[in-house]
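Below: protein 1.
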Amino acid sequence: MLNKVSNSDNESVAGNEDQINLKRRTVIQSAGLLAGAGMMGLATGGAWAAGSDKPEKEEVKVGFIPLTDCASVVMASVLGFDKKYGIKIIPSKESSWASVRDKLVNGELDAAHVLYGLLYGVQLGVSGTKKDMALLMTLNNNGQAITLSKKLADKGAVDGPGLAKLMQTDKREYTFAQTFPTGTHAMWLYYWLAANGINPMKDAKVITVPPPQMVANMRVGNMDGFCVGEPWNHRAIADGIGITAVTTQDIWKDHPEKVLGTTAEFVQKYPNTARALTAAVLEAGRWIDASLSNKTKMAETIADKSYVNTSVDVINQRILGRYQNGLGKTWDDPNYMKFFNDGAVNFPYLSDGMWFLTQHKRWGLLKADPDYLAVAKAVNRIDIYKDAAAMVKVNVPKDPMRTSKLMDGTVWDGKNPAAYAASFKIRA
């Protein structure tokens, strides 16, 4: 059974109400209802429906970037899962990850669909203001990609080895784009380049571009390649300007991607609201993954100009695992974007957060090794997630760590993060 992970600052909510809530949860846990991997939890609306457990803030403004993986936040609002838990989600379309960061920090947004590594960067004061953050759940696994320009593909750069060879023989400045300096796309791009013998810090120029602007920038020749979430990789293929060199699930199968993030201050002030928001989004993720028809309805919904603003066919192929690389190759990928996967997607594994810190250290964003585990325990609010999972009747893993093998054969299990960060031949 998971040990309860808590942040002393976040647990010390003012007033007796929180103490009552904590005691109540302790009683529930001791009754065995939250025990083990087969946890079924309480009936929806049971423990947190009324009285002191009522959400303190009923309208919750949640930011999102126009990407397929904003879907569970959007669908929680569209389908009314939020109302089921006593809140109203107000989705707020944002222009860039920097905007999401700033609005979370200043309180303009209550929470957001956000890059995993962005939250950790803010926590440690990398790439912006330092502020204590809270990660409530993982929103999705998989479903990002690295796109290379059609011009590079025509010269033989259709995959990692092909790109490395071209960069050796056709010497010039090569430019690649990611979406935020500490974010997931930067880390996937750097990891992939380095695994193919290309040092992203020395052998290339790396720029930051908001996701919806990637395709337009490649069209006018501002970059040779980019890493971004869907549907923008597929859009580059549909527009005839790029090819998919690798999917991120081929870099790390079932990797963590976007998360539901907020500030530690928000959770401290509105713990019941944070719990209700997590439950609503968790239930929406379960709904999306439940059937083909649900995925199709989701694609139709988020394609609207209010959300992703693209055609449905650009979204719905890869959400079903139907891939093409833009060069005639097609395949069915079993590791497509997942929003639930029986709860395996959503649990905020400590090792996942720690991995991003190891890469921040590897690439010089962090000058010294942090206390990897302590940071992960402070940011990843397993306590809030477990309560929400009980409300939605979702299984919770026994272990807050998991083991993963990445594309270069490196195994990550969270056991020795400093040694792992220092083990890579190519690093800053």
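Below: protein 2.
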Amino acid sequence: MAIDSLDVKKKEVLPEDNALIEFQETLKEAVEILHYPEQVYEFLRKPMRFLEVSIPVRMDNGQTQIFQGFRAQHNDATGPTKGGIRFHPDVTADEVKALAGWMSLKCGVTDLPYGGAKGGIICDPRKMSQDELERLSRGYVRAVSQLVGPTKDIPAPDMYTNSQIMAWMLDEYDHIREFDSPGFITGKPITLGGSKGRETATSKGVLYTLQRVCELRKLELKDTRVIIQGFGNVGSYLAKYLYELGAKVIGIGDVLGALYDENGLDIPYLLENRDSFGIVSNRFDDAISNQELLEKECDILIPAAISGVINQHNADRIKCQIVIEAANGPTTKDALAILDERGILVVPDILANSGGVIVSYFEWCQNNQGFYWTETEVDTRLKEKMNTSFENVYHTAKKYGVNMKIAAYIEGIQKLAEASRLRGWLKY
């Protein structure tokens, strides 16, 4: 069972690494630009609902281990909440709350009829057997089953979860509710109602965004030098697509290190030789650190791994024209200010990596209709959604004289605030 590359090493936690604070500070800035009253910020800065659960799991050695899990539902004014479930040893309550907020904004930016949610379990999937992962997945669904459902809150894969884990969760939910409910969860195997194109959706969304940016910046994608920090599901597919389009992928990183070649890496060879966790750098004697990789000169830098990798300590050493945020929160607020001052364009995560939730929406629509689309239909609709969302954020940035991150927040907040006002939750 392939799971994205897993960073099990504890990183030093810096003040700017708190994702919830990052979300709230940028949210407040965007609310003030829109001249909304304080109540809008107070309402949106935290999730409407947050559940913490304890999940007992019988391990293969016969002992029972208690795992801690979370589910945050940020805002359901525009429709049911939607968001992934991540398995990682560093999952925290604040991280899950921030990710739920970002998902709300992402759904606003892409005009989806959802609010944001997020789930997580503190665990290390690399040290667990398939049977243990199945029991954990089913236990999580039992713990949150009263809060989720196809018209309430729709989970999906996230960091280090995949279609098999979604299949176990779907089966457990069906047993609890005693009827078949494929729309309960997205990112499922195709044979269980999954959508064609879902596995590659986030990568293709990043690619379509990148192509649009290159058009604006008059850059030819062919021979453009690209560094991708992260070689899991998103990073690896993105490297494949860029290589096939003639871009020069000069660097990739995984959890153990990074590979760099100014003449371009052999991406097909790396894809063929990476392990099930996306690790390939350990096969090479000349591997460098991820920090060194981030500071290498390139045209386009794509952080596609974990949050906070571009921060106030290294932002002045980033040497690229464009940063495309394929990961969630890879650039801190302080770092963004430095990059702005240096004229480096940052395309924010809530726009660039929204392909996953867009195709999850398509999957949900197909489940509700009982009618399934071809991969070409999915890709065509995804590209249209990504391009429309990009144009809206780009023009909002021009209108308000702000960077694209603030512009994306403005786009997302407007829809949430208006829906909340129309429902009578907010008065202004």
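The longest helix spans residues 375-400.
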